[in-house]
Amino acid sequence: MHDHDHEHASELSDLQLRVRALETILTEKGYIDPATLDAVVDAYETKIGPHRGARVVAKAWTDPEFKRALLADATGAITAAKMFDRISDHLIAVANTEQQHNIIVCTLCSCYPWDMLGLPPVWYKSAPYRSRAVSDPRGVLREFGMELPVKTEIRVWDSTAETRFIVIPMRPAGTEGWTEEKLASLVTRNAMIGTGLPLAPGAAR
Amino acid sequence: MNGVHDMGGMHGFGPVREEPNEPVFHDKWEGRVYAMSRVTGVAGLWNIDMMRASQEMLPPPVYLASSYYERWERGLEQLLLKHGLVTAEEIAAGHARAPAKPVNSSIPPSQANKLFTRPSYARPATAPARFKSGERVRARNINPATHTRLPRYVRGHVGTVEALRGCHVFPDAVVAGHGEDPHWLYTVVFDGRDLWGPEGDPTSKISVEAWEPYLEPA
Fold it and tell me: Which of A69, A99, A149, B183 is most buried, judged by most C-beta within 10 A?
């Protein structure tokens, strides 16, 4: 390759070029419509994220009947509550208590409840988390700044099938009488994975 | 297969580092790869298990050195080549050279929302469940060279069936080309000390989702 060409090409990495080439080929062959790719990217960047799971958690905090149904059949309960257009099957909600704290991981790949939390952060898909969440959960939580009471049992859910998990954290004290919307603003992504806790009431938006 | 993707219990990868204010995609190409994978999946030539297998079969140094979406890109290329949707010449040239295969994967942007829910993997039961909730079971000591979803760290260990999740498509069979071959799926929970010995956290319990062929009575 001429030096001149190389200088231009170096503005894009090999990977960027490879992805661009693949999209070109798939488009030319009629397998994909680039506008559909735009719509998918836009949806995950702007519409499908942890705010959806946060709404579910806030509803569980304020509506005991919904919480019961959610823990029995999360997909069924969320569908029946008509909170979203449609969600995927096999969602399982697990509730934190004083006795048990839940954490979600996928040691074999990166399974994650996409339609509740959006796409997973890099750390969730990384080797450090996938390797140690099952063997040293307290050590991992410490890296997130969490120190649980020694008496609290830690339950790690390894997502090895098409079931997907969402953690329902404990409702923070001092939020009595709050609306679902205000409660939802305390529910972080990490609280629904189990590597964090909800924000304190003072942090409400 | 006993690949580097099966990471549970491995040492040496360092601490978990969280990126503050992390974007959904770090670069435009990541979003394109993700979306291409979702859209081409609509053709029905492969399922989620085959997508995972295509990444697991990457050479270990490549798997470990690649970012998440880089693995998706490499896995997608392998699937497209394997199913004859693209050719190696086309990938080298960056343009279509061969006629397209007659598959139906082109969905208009107005129907992109169809991609946002995953299909169901539950299937009608073909036999009664062998195990019941509360029963002690052993994860079989199996080491197939082909795709499996039984992580190494539970093999040979005894746990307790906590829940039955219905009959689900069996990944091992699908990837081996033996069809969906649905089996009962269980949540099986193990004590941290049983899995990890004296180094294990006695206050931890770890569960996996295990298909019936992965289990035997304890």
Answer: B183
Contact A36 B109 (CB under 8 A): yes
Q: Give the torsion sign (CA, A20, A25, A28, A30).
A: negative
In chain A, what percentage of residues exceed pLDDT 90?
90
Question: Is the pLDDT assigned to residue B9 strictly greater than 70?
Answer: yes
Give pTM, 2 decimals: 0.95
Q: What are phi and psi of B162, to 5 degrees?
A: -105, -35
A49 touches B: beta carbon within 8 Å? yes
Q: How far is residue B179 from each of residues A5, B50, B161, measured CA to CA in Å?
A: 48, 12, 26
**B contact residues 79-118, partner A, Cβ 8 Å cutoff:** 80, 85-86, 90-91, 94-96, 100, 103, 105-109, 111-113, 115-118
Residues A112-116, mean pLDDT to the nearest whole number:
96
On the 0-12 / 13-18 / 19+ scale of CB atoms within 10 A, A105 is buried
For residues B148 and B202, give the distance between their C-alpha atoms in angstroms, rounded to a whole number. 28
ipTM of this complex prediction, to 2 decimal places: 0.97
- The verdict on a CB contact (< 8 Å) between B211 and A154 is no
C-alpha to C-alpha distances, A194 to A185, B186, B201, nearest whole angstrom:
17, 22, 17
The CB density around residue B211, as the number of other CB atoms within 10 Å, is 25
The CATH number assigned to the domain with range A50-203 reads: 3.90.330.10
- Region(s) of chain A under CATH 3.90.330.10: 50-203
pLDDT digits (tens, 9 = 90+) for B40-57: 998 889 999 999 999 999
